[in-house]
Amino acid sequence: xxxxxxxxxxxxxxxxxxxxxxxxxxxxxxxxxxxxxxxxxxxxxxxxxxxxxxxxxxxxxxxxxxxxxxxxxxxxxxxxxxxxxxxxxxxxxxxxxxxxxxxxxxxxxxxxxxxxxxxxxxxxxxxxxxxxxxxxxxxxxxxxxxxxxxxxxxxxxxxxxxxxxxxxxxxxxxxxxxxxxxxxxxxxxxxxxxxxxxxxxxxxxxxxxxxxxxxxxxxxxxxxxxxxxxxxxxxxxxxxxxxxxxxxxxxxxxxxxxxxxxxxxxxxxxxxxxxxxxxxxxxxxxxxxxxxxxxxxxxxxxxxxxxxxxxxxxxxxxxxxxxxxxxxxxxxxxxxxxxxxxxxxxxxxxxxxxxxxxxxxxxxxxxxxxxxxxxxxxxxxxxxxxxxxxxxxxxxxxxxxxxxx
Length: 405
Prior knowledge:
Blueprint: E1 6-10, H1 15-28, E2 31-38, H2 47-54, E3 59-64, H3 66-79, H4 96-110, E4 114-116, H5 125-136, E5 141-143, H6 154-163, E6 179-182, E7 187-190, E8 220-227, E9 230-234, E10 237-238, H7 241-254, E11 259-265, E12 271-277, H8 279-295, H9 298-317, H10 323-335, E13 341-348, E14 351-358, H11 367-370, H12 383-404
Parallel strand pairs: 1-2, 1-4, 2-3, 4-5
Antiparallel strand pairs: 6-7, 7-12, 8-9, 8-13, 9-10, 11-12, 13-14
């Protein structure tokens, strides 16, 4: 092991990162700075401090990043209507660049020369974290224990914990059947029976949402107010980005909204099955497309839809800090200058239905032109004949050529 002076570890206080902390101390003989981020995972983060102190850590960072996460990462992503492979709302993916950013900032503040994470060598997160590290500090040293050590099973991890006196909350026989990740945008489930793509998830697995069949028999109606493509109020009550997400997660979960069961293509090459609950994100995507439908020019909207899969792949694969994502974000944000207005939604047994959309200042929907009734000359239907013939010209020429040959 080459000499490392000080390392900043992304630390949750759970089994893996607690073992990583001790392993780094023993293998690298260096000082450890722990960093625990509150990004709305719904669990108390304060106990991480006591666990780090028990392992001799002197520099401990516990940061509330919920507002920054929602404002600077989730909301910009939803301006793009980003969804990966048609189903995944990128809940884990979008959190990693923020954690990487704060780790690099702490490394600078604490005089550390290395950073470390608990992602395995099979997953996407190692790529997301490390692309972020290098983009923000090209000379930083990255330590990825899962790619170095021989603790390749839960049994070996538990044995290591026992040998080194590391407190573990879940011993063998009591472990959760799933690997879970949660933040303001979603909670994910992997492992256990989900490794069989034919197996239906257990009803007891879901934590944030009611089963759609058990949701209330009466729909809930909500109204979202948009400014420049972002939700700024719910039912005329102004809210910050994180407050918007908390509110929508609650009402969406109560109505059975946001469940997904997906087999996705990981960047490292394998297929992986995961289940997700994303109530707020499901509502926000539906509502955002609705307000865009009346405020964004047709060709701009279509261009955005063409770019979206590329944008979503950049986020999924860890390229949040890449220049092409910044370029696309600038283009997307420009398109949102006119995305102002209100959307009314009906939430009912797992479904989100748009029942109204309006914009006082930027509405491109003209009822005088769109009407099937008398339009008082607002639209000359005879103009359509020339439009159709000009657009058919190339096909008519092709047809004539085929008939000649």
